[in-house]
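Notebook entry, structure prediction.
Reason for the run: the old model in the group folder had no record of what sequence produced it. Starting over properly, with the input documented here first.
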Amino acid sequence: MQPKYPIILFAILVLVGCLQEQRNEENIPQENLPNIVWLVAEDQSPEWFPMYGDSTISLPNPESLAADGVVFTNAVAPVPVCAPAVSALISGMYPTTLGTHNMRTYTPWLAVNQPTLDSLPSYSPIVPEGVKMFPEYLRKIGYYTANGPKEDYNFEKTDAAWDESSGERHWRKRKNGQPFFAVFNYSVCHESQVWNRGKDSLYVDPQNVKVPPYFPDTEVIRHDLAVNYSNLKRLDDQIGKVIDDLKEDGLYENTIIFFYGDHGDLFLDIKGLCTILELKSR
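New structure, fully documented this time:
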């Protein structure tokens, strides 16, 4: 659950390096390589989850992963907002090193980046020479790599990273016996869904939520907090489908599953405001 970025990437890259060395020396069959799955809860922090002490709502699937694995209790992100954080995740480098620290410099799906800023064009930072998206290293040792539906790396991706990157990605498209790395991005808990799903069914009574001390205790705030908890229930259902598929395919025991948030909490006074929070804490 939202492990340290250095821990995630260091662990995976060490694993890749060790597997490459072992395969070179011993020619290990591909079926002996562990599978890797990322379950990415967008815009979420540990404080919302039962594994970290919040009893507001039960989330059986993340809780089952915690029971079967390891819960990280010292989690940090290099930046408190989406695209720069994702650039770090996919490369293992700090956004300030990559040149991707400015939010959403690269928007290839739009004609212009920010129409309100005098038609600022979209541009891809030029990352340091030799930098690769780390799934490319997995592909080189035989992994099937699949991602979706979101990319948002804040720089122009390399074509060698993914076998497939789309909303239809799945490990079931790989060759028989091929190890896989699959990323499932969940936007149901993204900041935007607080208002997009504001009139949907609530799975939590707004009167039963705990209001953080930095928010006013109002009906609107309580409703928005209840919406986010309800979206986590929807997230739980979607994660359950992936876990069920892994177990149905007999892959659960040979799959390393990471469940984490891409950068942290979604609400105002948190998302995108790391410096302000630091100053307020002093």
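Summary: Residues 5-192+252-281 form one domain.
The old model has been moved to the deprecated folder.
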